[in-house]
Specification:
The complex is a heterodimer of chains A (565) and B (665). Chain A is of the alpha+beta class and 565 residues long. Chain A is built from 21 helices and 14 strands. The longest helix of chain A has 40 residues. In chain B, β6 and β7 form a beta hairpin. In chain B, α10 runs parallel beside α13. Classes of the chains: A alpha+beta (565), B alpha+beta (665).
């Protein structure tokens, strides 16, 4: 299929575009009305204003894949298309005739819903910068292993390459960390007992207390209560003496029955005697999508009962629950003797959310820019979070398969809440999180393509597209993402989880509604203050050294003495 | 505020008391309760953490049903501290309730704290003059606006409060108006509060304020109508003026039946009349009650829905919206506005003060903000003692009108972080001391009453106290010349831009507030920079001196050395040479240099840390680094330290008690 087959009318003249823009002086939104022509290319919708003597020409570029939903409003007098974007921007386009309105609508419906990965934007954007293999290999399991176990010989864990051809578990990476005295054969058996072949693997090792987090998918007990000796052995071997194991099942008891009837299930305490099962509920990704849609609806159409709408969207409930559960895990791991196996259904969504949030609380490394990127690679990309499915549509849209669910958006929001509560302890800033959000849905970079490593390798993503980290690491860009007040905090951080402690992510969810200029001004001022401080410190250091040298010279010359001399 | 227990007068002590954590009722800490003449003090046995509560700040004392551990007493304060004490002996509990009831709300002004001997404040403020309240002359503030001029004049008609006892003794009115018109207008207005000038914009448009007219269903007053025409004529740029009644129309209608009401547009020429709809004091009081319950960390299930139900932010929005209306009329349409509500001392004060703050950057400075409060609130007779319940009087008079104003300012600070010289802590502390009765500033209901009480002679001024702690209140992000600081502020009043003021309503809930406070670390950074700048000047001086000393030693011939580059005078090196060398040597010894060398610590402790003396309890409590040792100090330890002015530029540098003796800059 060629893009050109989808484009009937490459250009329409005499088009009106309406959008809301911020009038900075009056600090209010005004509707901007632009006249000009609309152009369709293979990846962009480009609106160019008419040349006018008074005003410079303006261009609006909308990437097709950034369109979340299209609503046509054709009456006798009006031929209008409402374009809602995945980043919450909304445009209204008035066409001169019903015919071109319908034609453009049809083309955009197809172009914005292309499911063929090969036709996605990153494959056509190799020129934005050189493909840097180093950035594609930013994460390696060997590096993580070394970090968790500086002394390999005494470690009870090993790297297994059992999944090298993605056969055992298509959504797992090639290499995983497992208990040392479990052989690959047992892993294969366990994988057959777990949904999607996702057997228990090490997610995080807390050196300070030698406690750890494992994650997996649910065991496939079914109604005839199947068991798997090898799977039981993995959990038995993993747990050192003196530690209490907890299976953290992210489904509440009522859901477990449904799971069993569908062939799934949970670890029974009879078969896993060392492990205590705890059921904690997290809404599943499809419910989260509904929550997200309600949240954005409250933000976009805010008039009456805003706080009530915010409450009923349950977005804050989800944030609280995610932070609370990771808080409980961090508390057990750091202050008590708990070790964890986390899973829900397939271990693709909430499992990753909770394990990565717990790590951010526990591990100072994950609060640095590099450490955070490492965490995203390890716990989301390599862990097989289905990015392509979950972020195909945003808050305004959904595909018939209903695979959308903003789990990673919830993760970003939780991290932002933590950044706000611990404004000195994170090396990266809010802008970095917003940048990740934007690239999640539509990107020129290949990082979030596909649903797992297997798919990314088949697509040759690393040789055909540029990594998002290449963009981040660029000297000019990285400055934008650094928190100027960052001071390393070696402690575990304990967040507040009261609703009053949480805030609405205005700079993201209200990004096209509020004027961010006064706050940007404050951010710039902080950067300035940090720079001035650094300079005066350097100056003082220099003067101190100079004084010491002069003092020495003076003593040598015999002109400076101690008082009691 | 924390004092030393040794310095306080302890009346009685209650043992075996438990304090229950409000966010987790399972957590209880054991300790002792002390009742002093001014405070209720709880000291935890293990951590030595202290809670000090002024009796005057106590809002309610509630005895809860007996439990196995003893008698629980829930104390709520006006600055939103909730403490649940469980007292093992019933008799102790009775004593406590009795003392609290006796002290928390006296019946006479002279029993209030501010009229008592206060050794703590004496120590703190003795160096300054006892009272600075006289600095804020109404005349000088009007002079700043260019008054009197040919349009506006000052009248002494009220010099003995004879026409209006709740107004100041000087008033600014149109120059063209005769006294008898003013007199008649006062008679026609509720409580004599005739239209007078509040703020004059450079474009000629004025903001005037008054109370409702006593018009009833069809009463008229020719002179009142004339006065409005005179006000209208002071502004050449507009052919009409607005009269804004800040009440909901239905309230104003109800007043008509009592012989009061609002201006009839047909009687007053060229006015445009507007109702705005800010609710009355009773609605506001009930809304705050709901808000406090909703903020209480012990009941937190559906906070946002509860918040919606309180309607608190809706009221805040109404006040800001009204002020924006005034700003747009005056600044954008060059049109004068007359504002009133019922008596013109609640909603009128809120909106006139807020509109002035939006219009004029001067009021966003620390000094300007104090002037604004003096003028619109204190001098124009906002009934602080009634509204804050300073005395045991009618509870129906209590209402958080001034608190709402402070909250509006806080909402503005949030939207314009670089536009205010003062920070959030300033507002929170101001809120506290409006109720604390420790200072005379907010005692009484009008200027006349404060004069009668001899507030200026007998009490300390809050403004002096603030001045002594000015470093706690400076917004490090203030940029006086930026676009938003310099111009009219246009706040976003859409409901999602208004926030719940967590640091006020949950000020004492450490589990709710963020662990790291951004503004603290930014403040620290800017103090660190200024300390280091002073320090580098000292180091430069010492380096130069040493260089000269070495140079001097090399030149044994009688030559003239130019020393003008440092602060030493030219020294003629002749036979005085040896003496000079000696004097240098005397000044500069190794020990001296090493003292200098250590006068400022390069790496101050992060604000993440707490003062060694106690655990933080109050989110608004300030932290400060000692410049010399870099340690973090709490408010009480700061009071024991000292601000030393540097020799280089007289900048004040803070050092702690332990470092004071060894500090030189």
């Amino acid at each position: 299929m060629d893009f050109m087959d989808l484009i009937e009318m490459p250009r329409v003249d005499h088009v009106k575009v309406y959008r809301q823009i911020q009038n900075y002086e009056l600090n209010q939104l005004v509707t901007q009305k632009l006249f000009g022509s609309l152009n369709l290319t293979s990846h962009h919708l480009i609106f160019i204003t008419q040349t006018d003597l008074q005003k410079p020409r303006e261009e609006i570029w909308i990437v097709h894949s950034s369109i979340d939903s299209l609503e046509k409003n054709v009456t006798e007098a009006k031929f209008q298309l409402m374009i809602k974007c995945k980043n919450f921007q909304i445009y209204f386009v008035d066409f001169p005739t019903a015919y071109c309105c319908n034609s453009i609508h049809k083309s955009l419906e197809s172009l914005s819903n292309l499911t063929t990965e090969n036709m996605k934007l990153p494959f056509f954007c190799q020129t934005i910068s050189k493909i840097n293999q180093e950035d594609w290999n930013f994460y390696s399991i060997e590096k993580s292993y070394k970090r968790f176990f500086p002394n390999e010989d005494s470690s009870e864990w090993r790297i297994s390459e059992i999944n090298n051809d993605f056969k055992i578990s298509p959504s797992y990476p090639k290499k995983v960390i497992v208990p040392k005295n479990i052989d690959d054969q047992a892993l294969i058996k366990s994988s057959q007992f777990r949904s999607m072949g996702r057997f228990p693997i090490l997610s995080y090792y807390h050196k300070k207390t030698n406690s750890f987090i494992l994650r997996s998918s649910q065991p496939l007990l079914g109604s005839n209560n199947k068991r798997c000796k090898e799977d039981e052995l993995i959990l038995k071997c993993a747990l050192p003496k003196g530690k209490q194991g907890y299976v953290y099942d992210l489904r509440d008891a009522s859901i477990l029955k449904t799971a069993v009837s569908k062939g799934g299930g949970y670890e029974t305490e009879v078969n896993y005697p060392l492990w205590k099962r705890i059921n904690k509920h997290m809404d599943r990704f499809d419910q989260l999508h509904i929550s997200y849609s309600k949240l954005i609806d409250a933000c976009v159409n805010s008039s009456t009962q805003f706080f009530y709408k915010l409450d009923t969207s349950a977005w804050f409930y989800n944030i609280r629950q995610a932070l609370y559960l990771s808080f409980l895990i961090a508390d057990e791991i750091h202050n008590k003797n708990g070790c964890f196996l986390i899973h829900g259904w397939d271990g693709l969504d909430n499992t990753l959310l909770i394990s990565s949030l717990a790590q951010i609380l526990l591990d100072p490394e994950s609060r640095t820019l590099d450490g955070f990127i490492d965490l995203i690679e390890r716990e989301w990309l390599h862990a097989g979070h289905p990015f392509s499915k979950r972020y195909f549509k945003s808050a305004f849209g959904i595909t018939p398969q209903k695979q959308e669910g903003p789990v990673f958006v919830l993760f970003l929001d939780c991290v932002r809440q933590l950044c706000e509560q611990f404004c000195l302890s994170f090396e990266f800033n809010e802008d970095f999180l917003i940048m990740l959000f934007d690239n999640l849905y539509t990107s020129e970079y290949g990082t979030f393509l596909g649903n797992n490593q297997n798919e990314r390798e088949q697509l040759l993503v690393s040789s055909r597209t540029v990594s998002l980290w290449t963009y981040v690491k660029n000297e000019e860009n990285i400055k934008k993402f650094i928190n100027p007040l960052y001071k390393i905090n070696d402690d575990v951080i304990w967040p507040s989880i009261f609703t009053q402690s949480l805030s609405l992510w205005s700079n993201l969810f209200l990004r096209f509604q509020i004027n961010s200029k006064p706050n940007d001004e404050a951010k710039k001022e902080i950067v300035k203050l940090v720079e001035t401080n650094l300079q005066v410190k350097i100056k003082v250091e220099k003067l101190r050294n100079e004084l010491l040298e002069l003092q020495k010279e003076a003593i040598d010359a015999g002109v400076l003495n101690s008082e009691n001399y | 505020m924390k004092l030393d227990l040794e310095e306080s007068n302890v009346i009685t002590k209650i043992e075996n008391v438990q304090l229950e954590d409000r966010s987790n009722s399972k957590i209880k800490t054991a300790g002792l309760l002390y009742l002093t003449i001014s405070h209720l003090v709880f000291i935890e046995t293990n951590s030595k953490r202290e809670i000090w509560i002024y009796y005057s700040l106590i809002n309610s004392i509630e005895k809860l049903p007996l439990s196995i551990n003893g008698s629980p007493i829930l104390i709520r304060t006006k600055h939103f501290l909730n403490c649940l004490f469980i007292i093992s002996k019933e008799r102790d509990c009775q004593t406590l309730v009795q003392v609290l009831n006796q002290y928390s709300r006296p019946t006479k002004y002279h029993e209030l704290l501010c009229f008592r001997e206060n050794s703590h404040l004496k120590k703190l403020l003795d160096s300054t003059h006892k009272n600075n309240q006289q600095i804020y002359h109404l005349e000088s503030e009007y002079a700043r606006m260019g008054l009197p001029n040919n349009k506006w004049t000052m009248t002494n008609l009220n010099s003995d409060y004879q026409i209006c006892d709740t107004y100041p003794n000087v008033l600014f009115v149109p120059a063209s108006v005769e006294d008898k018109i003013l007199q008649s207008s006062a008679n026609f207005r509720s409580r004599g509060r005739l239209p007078v000038l509040s703020y004059l914009h450079p474009n000629g448009a004025s903001l005037t304020r008054c109370s409702q007219p006593l018009s009833g269903f069809n009463g008229r007053c020719d002179e009142d109508e004339q006065l409005l025409q005179h006000i209208l004529m002071t502004n050449e740029n507009s052919k009409f003026m607005y009269v804004v009644d800040t009440r909901p129309k239905i309230n104003a209608m109800a007043n008509k039946a009592q012989g009061k009401g609002y201006e009839n547009e047909t009687n007053y020429k060229n006015i445009q009349f507007h109702f705005i709809g800010i609710e009355n004091i009773h609605v506001m009081r009930n809304s705050l009650d709901k808000l406090v319950k909703c903020a209480d960390s012990s009941s937190n299930s559906s906070f946002l829905t509860e918040l919606e139900k309180t309607e608190w932010l809706k009221h805040i929005k109404a006040i800001i919206d009204t002020s924006v209306f005034l700003v747009e009329a005056i600044n954008d349409q060059n049109t004068s506005v007359l504002v009133h509500c019922s008596d013109g001392w609640d909603r009128t004060a809120q909106t006139c003060a807020l509109a002035s703050l939006l219009l004029d950057p001067y009021y966003r400075s620390i000094h300007g903000f104090q002037v604004l409060i003096e003028k619109e609130w204190l001098l124009f007779g906002h009934k602080f003692s009634h509204r804050c319940g300073h005395l045991f009087e009618n509870d129906k008079e209590i209402s958080p009108i001034f608190s709402q104003f402070l909250e509006c300012v806080w909402q503005l600070q949030l939207q314009f972080p670089c536009a205010f010289e003062f920070n959030e802590t300033y507002l929170i502390k101001l809120h506290e001391h409006v109720y604390s009765c420790q200072f005379g500033t907010f005692i009484g209901n009008c200027q006349k009453e404060r004069n009668d009480l001899k507030i200026n002679e007998l009490t300390y001024s809050l403004w002096d106290y603030f001045q002594s702690k000015i470093y706690d209140f400076i917004n490090p992000l203030y940029i006086p010349n930026s676009f938003y600081s310099n111009s009219v502020l246009r706040p976003d009043t859409r409901i999602f831009s208004l926030k719940f003021w967590r640091s006020l309503y949950n000020r004492f809930d450490s589990a709710i507030n963020p662990s790291e406070k951004l503004i603290d670390s930014v403040s620290m950074l800017s103090y660190n920079t200024s300390s280091l700048q002073e320090y580098s000047k000292l180091l430069e001086k010492r380096c130069a001196q040493l260089k000269k000393l070495i140079q001097l030693n090399k030149n044994d011939e009688n030559v003239l050395i130019d020393l003008s580059e440092d602060d030493f005078e030219k020294i003629e090196i002749s036979d005085k040479n040896e003496n000079e060398k000696k004097s240098f040597e005397k000044k500069l010894t190794l020990d001296e240099i090493s003292i200098d060398f250590n006068s400022i610590d390069l790496n101050w402790k992060s604000t993440r840390k707490n003062c060694v003396c106690y655990e933080p309890f109050d989110f608004a409590s300030s932290k400060l680094n000692c410049s010399r040792c870099g340690e973090i100090l709490c408010e009480r330890c700061v009071e024991n330290g000292k601000y030393v002015s540097s020799s280089a530029s007289n900048k004040l540098i803070f050092v702690c008690k332990n470092c004071v003796d060894q500090f030189r800059l």
